[in-house]
């Protein structure tokens, strides 16, 4: 790269004029945005928005996921030089993708947060763009699902997780990262008969009708077989994909609040996600990346790779 070319590739998050294309500025410098996309709140002409939700006041154990979006953004700077492996297209080239920044909320008024997040996501969808969110703890999926359901109707859910997050909770005012999918089923936001949880390895006897492919079942099957089973369950229905990073074994993602051994490997997760190509994905998130518990940065790197795979899944049928 010529010296002048290198000088022109600086702070693409604020200087790039074309929302499409790869980026070649130094991964270790520059303004950090998701995949070096442009920071903007004006989504006119954009296809997809990536947004951060730095909220962790719903955790049952270790906090720290408020730092997840920032860490994922930093890690994502390693993935902008080349098209993603396996896919026959690059979402960074094929679509106008923006970094919409983070949701704003008063950390001292937790009860106000759900409405603030729902309005934030509705603002993205109302501008005609799709949305992929970076958490934050897993509670954030509930207001995000509410916003998507208002646009698309009841959704199918593909949930990668160590925990079902369907423990009973009929108090809608509670903000808890272990009960939000119970509420989502009970309020009709997601259809349990066309939803599936992958990687579960904690006990919750009542699945509410959601199909569970637990971690052992994943280990005993080929990734392609797991993906085919998931696709048969969700069909062509509007589908939301949520990936709790603790779906991965702590050996691959130690930086999370409630780690459980026996989880998926990074390779298994990557293969399953890629073999889900063709689903009708209308939105998604990656959650529970907690950088304080991983000094290596490996968990944030995994989170950034998941976001890339979600962008590919979202874009596969829209090329």
Note down, in words, how this protein is organized:
With 319 residues, this protein is of the alpha/beta class. It has a single domain, classed as Ureohydrolase domain (Arginase, Chain A, 3-Layer(aba) Sandwich), CATH 3.40.800. 32% of the residues lie in helices and 14% in strands. The protein contains eleven helices and nine strands. Strands 1-3-2-4-9-8-5-6-7 form a nine-stranded parallel β-sheet, with helices on both faces. Helix 5 packs across helix 6 and helix 6 runs parallel beside helix 7 (180-186). It is globular and about 55 Å long. The two termini are 30 Å apart. 49% of the residues are buried. The mean pLDDT is 95. Belongs to the arginase family. Agmatinase subfamily. One of its GO terms (biological process) is putrescine biosynthetic process from arginine, via agmatine. GO terms for molecular function: agmatinase activity; metal ion binding.
Descriptive terms for the model:
single chain, 319 residues, alpha/beta, Arginase, Chain A, nine-stranded parallel beta sheet, 9 strands, 14% strand, globular
């Amino acid at each position: 790269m010529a010296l002048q070319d290198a000088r022109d590739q600086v702070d693409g998050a604020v200087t790039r004029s074309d929302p499409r294309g790869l980026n070649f500025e130094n991964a270790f410098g520059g303004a950090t945005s998701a995949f070096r996309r442009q920071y903007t709140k004006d989504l006119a002409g954009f296809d997809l928005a990536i947004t951060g939700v730095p909220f962790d006041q719903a955790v049952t154990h270790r906090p720290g996921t408020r730092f997840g979006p920032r860490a994922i953004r930093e890690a994502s700077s390693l993935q902008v030089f080349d098209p993603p492996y396996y896919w026959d297209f690059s979402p960074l080239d094929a679509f106008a993708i923006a970094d919409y920044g983070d949701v704003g909320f008063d950390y001292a008024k937790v009860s106000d947060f759900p409405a603030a997040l729902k309005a934030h996501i509705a603002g993205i969808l109302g501008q005609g763009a799709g949305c992929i969110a970076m958490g934050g703890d897993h509670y954030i999926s509930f207001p995000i699902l509410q916003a998507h359901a208002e646009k698309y109707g009841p959704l199918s859910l593909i949930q990668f997780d160590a925990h079902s997050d369907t423990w009973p909770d009929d108090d809608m005012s509670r903000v808890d990262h272990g009960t939000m999918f119970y509420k989502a089923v009970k309020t009709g936001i997601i259809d349990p008969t066309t939803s599936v949880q992958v990687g579960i390895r904690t006990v919750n006897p009542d699945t509410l009708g959601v199909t569970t492919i637990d971690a052992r079942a994943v280990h005993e099957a080929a990734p392609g077989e797991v993906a085919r089973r998931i696709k048969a369950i969700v069909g062509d229905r509007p589908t939301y994909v949520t990936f709790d990073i603790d779906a991965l074994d702590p050996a691959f993602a130690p930086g999370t609040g409630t780690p459980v051994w026996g989880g998926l490997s990074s390779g298994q997760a990557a293969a399953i996600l890629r073999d889900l190509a063709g689903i009708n994905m209308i939105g998604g998130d990656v959650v529970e990346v907690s950088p304080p518990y991983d000094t290596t940065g490996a968990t944030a790197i995994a989170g950034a790779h998941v976001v890339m795979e979600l962008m590919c899944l979202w874009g596969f049928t829209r090329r």
